[in-house]
UniProtKB/TrEMBL annotation, chain A:
Protein name: SCO family protein
Biological classification of the source: Bacteria, Pseudomonadati, Bacteroidota, Cytophagia, Cytophagales
UniProt keyword annotations, A-Z: Copper, Signal
Every Thioredoxin domain range: 55-218
Classification via PANTHER family: ELECTRON TRANSPORT PROTIN SCO1/SENC FAMILY MEMBER (PTHR12151), LINALOOL DEHYDRATASE_ISOMERASE DOMAIN-CONTAINING PROTEIN (PTHR12151:SF25)
Biological source species: Pontibacter aquaedesilientis
Alphabetical list of CDD domains matching this protein: SCO (cd02968)
Family listed: Belongs to the SCO1/2 family.
């Protein structure tokens, strides 16, 4: 009777161990890169070698061209083959922007030495946020412009690219500061697919973003093999 | 008896509410920029934690909250020039509570404000309301 009890509890313990190992396993696999591709997708039929094949076309960020704090043109080529995190803000924002920027700084610091990751902050108030204003802002944040681009451009292009990133950005006189915008940080991969959207005002979500980014970066040891 | 207890309860409720008002208002109106711990943001937003400005410019603090601030200022030896919005809807009691929260948190232990002191400061900068 007593023995029975012990074996039973041993068995339970063993099960628990397995569960733990399993958990550990699945954790690892998510770190290895199972981030979904977000946005609308289309299934396209086409003919190849006389047979019908089905392709899935994922939502892709279209080409863009903006100007950064150094008056340099930042385009889709600037982020080619790179992973980037993007957001929308304005320098005179009386609400969530400073919090977003303090969280984006965490991402910046965590990947300071990772050339494959860049940050791209768009102003939604290009009338006020000229290159000079963005320059001053970036200087005061003490960040380098190779890594973190603060961009301005045609208002319409900025607002329409925000939609592509699935981020809300609107002008609204009723709102404090004159704009409505979300505090989202959008994670984009080398193919310009959106792989994650995080609340940039929430430290826990930004922790998650920092954890997720390496899954999209080229594997360090693979790179060594190639060299 | 029951009424007495109820009255006492509401009274203490009221009292603790007032005590927390400074923190609540700080979180609502200030923490976005000055951060929850008063640390500010690099060279963009000045800190409130350990800020010499709170001591050296004590007489201006109520007006800074009510009317905002623009132009270059120096806090702990660093220049800031970003612009803080006005909070014209806050009344003298609320401003007093926020200031006392700032003066006694984030590692600060500066003397507290009284409502008459805040009232006097606001009186001296009342012309800013009329522009």
């Amino acid at each position: 009777m007593k023995r029975n009890k012990i074996t039973r509890s041993l068995f339970a313990l063993l099960l628990l161990c397995f569960a733990g190992a399993w958990q550990g396993c699945s954790d690892k696999s998510s770190a290895a890169g199972d981030l979904p591709i977000l946005g609308e997708r289309q299934v396209v039929q086409r003919e190849a070698d006389g047979r019908q094949v089905t392709d899935t076309v994922y939502h892709t960020i279209p080409d863009f061209a903006f100007i950064n704090q150094d008056s340099q043109v930042v385009t889709s080529l600037t982020v080619q083959d790179k992973v980037y995190v993007t957001d929308f803000f304005f320098t005179t924002c009386p609400t969530i922007c400073p919090k977003m920027k303090s969280q984006m700084l965490r991402v910046y610091e965590a990947f300071k030495d990772e050339p494959q990751l860049v940050l791209l902050s768009h102003t939604i108030d290009p009338k006020h946020d000229t290159v000079a204003v963005l320059r001053d802002y970036a200087d005061r944040l003490q960040v380098s412009s190779d890594k973190w681009h603060f961009v301005t451009g045609e208002k319409d292009s900025i607002y329409s690219i925000a939609m592509q990133y699935m981020v809300t950005a609107l002008e609204d006189e009723q709102e404090p500061g004159g704009f409505v915008h979300s505090g989202a940080f959008v994670l984009v991969d080398q193919n310009r697919h959106v792989r994650g959207i995080y609340d940039g005002t929430d430290p826990a979500q930004v922790d998650k973003l920092i954890q997720d980014i390496p899954a999209l970066l080229p594997k360090k040891n693979k790179k060594k093999d190639a060299n | 008896m029951a009424a007495g207890i109820a009255a006492l309860l509401t009274l203490t409720q009221c009292f603790t509410d007032k005590q927390n008002e400074g923190e609540r208002l700080y979180t609502q109106y200030c923490a976005n920029c000055h951060m929850d711990d008063g640390s500010g943001l690099r060279n963009l937003i000045p800190p409130l934690a350990g800020a010499d400005y709170l001591v050296n410019h004590r007489d201006e603090l109520a007006c800074i909250i009510q009317h905002g601030q623009t132009g270059n200022i120096v806090v702990n030896g660093k220049n800031y020039n970003q612009g803080m919005p006005a909070f014209e809807h806050l009344n003298k009691g609320q401003i007093t509570n926020i200031l006392n929260y700032v003066q006694t948190n984030f590692g600060n232990s500066n003397p507290r404000f009284t409502i008459p002191e805040v009232e006097k400061q606001l009186f001296d900068c009342r012309h800013l309301l009329e522009q």
